[in-house]
């Protein structure tokens, strides 16, 4: 404290700084020693870090980038090296994956674990947006975690679907089927569609208008049985769904079924061949097969 100011606070016995606000005087208490030590260490560490590590951006002579530091540390370089190492490790496993059949992969625990991890990652990046996390599906998008399949649920069948898609233009091997839009194209009148809805509901034991369902049975035999079968069990060779269960991709309420009959759905799934490499497609098929609905 300066000799010019030696005022002592009567209450605490501590010198004041001479600063006063609304009658409140500022005491001249020193900072805690531990705090000062930590502060000095922090300053010293900052200078050491600036010298050793990339720190100061855009100084003259550094080409508009930060100072590199004596250690030459670069997170960008480290990440690139790690990615390169991962790709090299995956490359070996991917070659084994491609050389093995789907059945052989299932019987090789190490290869299966690699394929499952790879497939799960690819599913999350490319498929979960539509099919949901874990393949739980959503209205308009099939659930992949059950045993209901529009097409084949075998390992080879799933790989075929993933590789070539559904109704994917430009891929001659794509799975393809087309349901007529009976209402939009005026193949059936609205009253006939209503009767047909009642008949379709009767397949799964739902409450129906018996008279309308009887009328709908004749329409079904003429218009629908060719694809869905006389027993309405569907045909997975052409992607015609089973109408006797409680699984409905686009909703099973009467209004939903009427909309499907009137306008058709004929949804599209992209072909992943060309977007994903062969090992990833194979791994995806294994992962989807494992979700609970594979055959």
What does this structure look like?
- This protein is mainly alpha-helical.
- Among the domains are: 76-174 and 269-292, Cytochrome c-like domain (Cytochrome Bc1 Complex, Chain D, domain 2), CATH 1.10.760; 190-263, Cytochrome c-like domain (Cytochrome Bc1 Complex, Chain D, domain 2), CATH 1.10.760.
- Helices cover 48% and strands 3% of the residues.
- The chain has a two-stranded antiparallel sheet.
- Helix 2 (75-99) packs across helix 11 (278-293) and helix 7 (190-203) crosses helix 8 (210-223).
- The longest helix has 25 residues, at 75-99.
- The termini are far apart.
- The model has no long low-confidence stretch (mean pLDDT 87).
Keywords:
295 residues, mainly alpha, Cytochrome Bc1 Complex, Chain D, domain 2, 11 helices, 2 strands
């Amino acid at each position: 404290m300066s000799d010019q100011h030696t005022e002592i606070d009567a209450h605490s016995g501590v010198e004041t700084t001479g600063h006063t606000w609304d009658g409140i005087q500022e005491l001249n208490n020193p900072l805690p020693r531990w705090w000062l030590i930590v502060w000095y260490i922090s300053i010293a560490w900052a200078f050491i870090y600036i010298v050793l590590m990339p720190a100061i951006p855009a100084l003259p002579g550094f080409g508009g980038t930060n100072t590199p530091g004596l250690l030459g540390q670069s997170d960008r370089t480290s990440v690139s090296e790690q990615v390169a190492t991962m790709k090299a490790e995956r490359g070996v496993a991917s070659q084994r994956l491609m050389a093995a059949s789907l059945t052989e992969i299932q019987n090789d625990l190490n290869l299966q674990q690699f394929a499952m991890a790879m497939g799960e990652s690819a599913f999350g990046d490319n498929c979960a947006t539509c099919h949901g996390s874990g393949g739980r599906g959503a209205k308009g998008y099939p659930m992949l975690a059950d045993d209901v399949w529009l097409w084949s649920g075998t390992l080879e069948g799933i790989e075929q679907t993933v590789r070539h898609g559904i109704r994917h233009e430009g891929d001659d091997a794509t799975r393809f089927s087309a349901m007529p839009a009976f209402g939009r194209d005026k193949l059936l009148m609205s009253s006939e569609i209503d009767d047909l809805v009642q008949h379709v509901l009767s397949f799964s034991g739902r409450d129906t208008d018996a008279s309308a369902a009887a009328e709908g049975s004749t329409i079904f035999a003429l218009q629908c049985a060719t694809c869905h079968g006389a027993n309405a069990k569907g045909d997975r060779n052409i992607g015609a769904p089973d109408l006797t269960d409680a699984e409905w991709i686009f909703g099973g309420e009467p209004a939903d079924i009427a909309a499907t009959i009137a306008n058709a759905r004929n949804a599209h799934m992209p072909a992943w061949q060309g977007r994903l490499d062969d090992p990833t497609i194979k791994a995806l098929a294994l992962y989807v097969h494992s979700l609970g609905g594979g055959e």
